[in-house]
Amino acid sequence: MKNIFSKKTFWALVLVANFVSCKSNDDFLKENPETFYTVDNAFATSAQIDQALVAIYSQIRDLWANPSEEGWIFVLRGNGTDMYDVASIRKGSTFNNYGLINADNGTFYNIYSTYYQMIAKANLALEATNLPHISFASDAEKASLVAQARFFRAYAYRNLGELFGGVPIVTTVSKTPQYDFKRTTRVETYQFAIDDLLAAEADLPETTTAGGRVVKGAAQHYLAELYLALGTQLAAEGQGGDAQAAFTKSIAYASKVIDGGTYALMKTRFGARSTEAQGNVYWDLFQEKNVNFQDGNREAVWTLQVDYAAYRAEDGKSKLPYSRTYGAVFRDGAKDHLTGTLEDVGGRGIAQIIPTMYTRDDIYAGKYGDDMRNSDIVFRRTFIGNVRTSPYFGKPVPWEVIYNGSPDATTNFNNRSLCYPISCKIATDKYTGVADGENMSNLFRDDYFIRLSETILLRAEAKQRSGDKAGAAADVNLLRERANASYKVSAADMDDKFNTILDERARELVYEEARWNTLLRMGGTIAVERIRKYAYWPEAQATLTFDYNLWPIPQTIIDTNKDVVLEQNPGWQR
């Protein structure tokens, strides 16, 4: 007979048993709390409101750096797109097998709910700023707290709008359970985030004395992105006039960042290692003590903060585990020639997420190969054999040998997923903490949320969408010129599928951009076409048999919202 005694039933009986056994001692169970925390009494000072905001900064840092190595965050960083996939040893974590990806997938729920957690924290801080018993040092202090909270709320809705489309807008702290949330449209979601950023922009500082806090340029960057997203959606809905107005605003806000005098592309060597002959200016951007605007890096708009001393003392999440999570595993894939976990193989990599062949090779094919971002110091392709029995010991190991070290074709295909070029963004030749026992898994430098390069590429896209292909090409060439790329694009290269811009984003922003946001924001079939074309594993081509340009609303959210029907996004209906 089928066993129907589930775990749920078991724990229910345990609770009942505990209740019965304690019934005669019910005084023990009675609680007499002196107070309950509410929005009204949880905050006593403006400093406590600031701490609520610091909690959001911390959450965003962990969401980006992923110090706990959570699989769903790797998806947020681009796993399953044209740019990244998983290694053969991690096929169970693939995000390109659409036989397994549906509205019940926990990744969608984790991402969706995390941004609503962020919204709840921002709403809590906003309500606290209006409490009558809170005193502020000045009107400016209060305005700054409000601006940061509205920035974070906009940041969350920007992500929700780009990934999921129209979602419920929540502006207050919920005090009772609610089951009747209503979806807005994607346009309304974008507009709400825009309104928050417009309100925040004036009260955010131009610069700060220390890195990490949001500044005016960050708000302007996201305004450029959101107006671009808004215009793209309006154009898809046939509202051409309104779309063009949105593109014009996108260009204007991007230009405030690009041409406003605060930020500039770094074009000459700078920073802590600028006197070393081996580097170049692009490499300098990703060295310790070089990432923040306060370090002399005028390209840095908004950065996350990592502190090695704090990591050692109390904050075990203050790290970038990039060498570990993004690093190659030559010791498995090319073990006859390359082994170990030292700097010579890019550190202690375990290949949680890997660059596709598109990311490592295709974007540098032909005339695009001569590019500083493809130089060995930036995107290392030369690895010296370190196995004494190898004929390549002490010599560069050819990729043909690395990729084809086995007589078995399947093994070779799998090994290609373990061995790949190493970006200077995920590894270094000087690891901090080795003397303290660190094992070359982590970087202890700050990292970028927004770098001016992305603002330039947003403006290029807005110009192209507004009909100015020559202007779009000129913006792309700002980056190609800085990279000393021999080929400069022209208006003729700016194709209607935005391949030129997407390829340039891959060259410039590998391991930096949130690729899913970019692809889904672009609408149409751009995302699915590129996934089918460039995904590393063949499951994508075999199972992605439908088109979509939004992720599904998590089924758990739809089922829980029992009093109002939340419509599912196209392509994901059961």
TrEMBL record:
Subcellular location: Cell outer membrane
Coiled coil start-end: none
Main location: membrane
Chain ranges of the SusD-like N-terminal domain: 28-228
Keywords recorded for this protein, A-Z: Cell outer membrane, Membrane, Signal
Pfam families registered for this protein in UniProt: SusD-like_3, SusD_RagB
Similarity field: Belongs to the SusD family.
Protein name: RagB/SusD domain protein
Upper taxonomic lineage: Bacteria, Pseudomonadati, Bacteroidota, Cytophagia, Cytophagales
